[in-house]
Specification:
Elements: H1 2-43, E1 46-50, H2 55-58, E2 61-66, E3 71-76, H3 77-88, H4 95-114, E4 124-125, H5 137-143, H6 148-161, E5 165-169, E6 172-173, E7 178-179, H7 189-193, E8 215-216
Helix pairs in contact: 3-4, 3-6, 4-6
Length: 219
């Protein structure tokens, strides 16, 4: 009888020790994993989507200023984006890269319009040092050696395949800066131009020794 009681007691002691090990070692790991997931979820708050506010309807056309001759024209938003992508990225890049550039350019354009235009009577200009690069179809054709129409149609495909897509933060278009090459690491825009230190514009490392087009400053 005493032997049976000893065995039962040992079993309870062993079970108690196992529960302590679980409480001390395994439970904290589970809680830590949960925290990491929750923390990551909080950081991923930049989205690329078609917003409930259809900016392609709200801004069906925009007014573009040509700075060389100080003339302006009303142009359909995505037609304008085609010319921007033509100026900003080589057409022989993959279609998905061109679509990404179109999304960034569209986002940048809408942010400028929504948050105070740089030009009193125009939405945006064609000067890359002021607003965003833009090239006419005719000048772009002059710089291509062959297959001009085929290349232009590829740009149009990229733009219209991403029509309506913009990058948002808290439901609004972000100030979508982009560049051709970061030199391995981006800089905070606030350290370059001053202004606001947006939470979605952070320093990130990028691939080195390669020409990389349309890399966002966002992490």
């Amino acid at each position: 009888m005493k032997n049976i009681l000893r065995k039962i007691l040992k079993s309870y002691i062993l079970l108690f020790l196992v529960l302590i090990i679980v409480a001390i070692i395994i439970l904290p790991l589970l809680l830590t994993q949960k925290f990491i997931i929750e923390n990551t979820t909080q950081q991923i708050n930049i989205e690329v989507k078609k917003e409930e506010i259809d900016y392609n309807v709200k801004y069906k056309t925009i007014n573009l200023l040509h700075k060389v001759d100080n003339t302006s024209e009303d142009i359909e938003l995505d037609e304008y984006i085609v010319n921007v992508v033509a100026a900003e990225m080589p057409v022989d890049y993959e279609l998905e890269a061109l679509k990404a550039q179109a999304t960034v350019a569209r986002t940048y354009t809408l942010y400028q319009i929504e948050n105070g235009k740089k030009h009193a009577n125009n939405d945006i200009c064609d000067d890359s040092t002021c607003c965003q690069a833009w090239i006419s179809k005719e000048k772009r054709f002059e710089r291509w050696d062959s297959n001009q129409e085929e290349k232009w149609n590829k740009l149009r495909e990229a733009v219209y395949a991403s029509a309506g897509d913009i990058i948002t933060y808290e439901g609004k278009p972000i100030d979508a800066f982009f560049h051709s090459n970061s030199g391995g690491k981006t800089e905070l825009p606030v350290n370059v131009w001053g202004g606001n230190n947006f939470p979605y514009l952070q320093t990130v490392e990028t691939a080195r020794r390669r020409r990389i087009f349309a890399i966002l400053f966002i992490s």
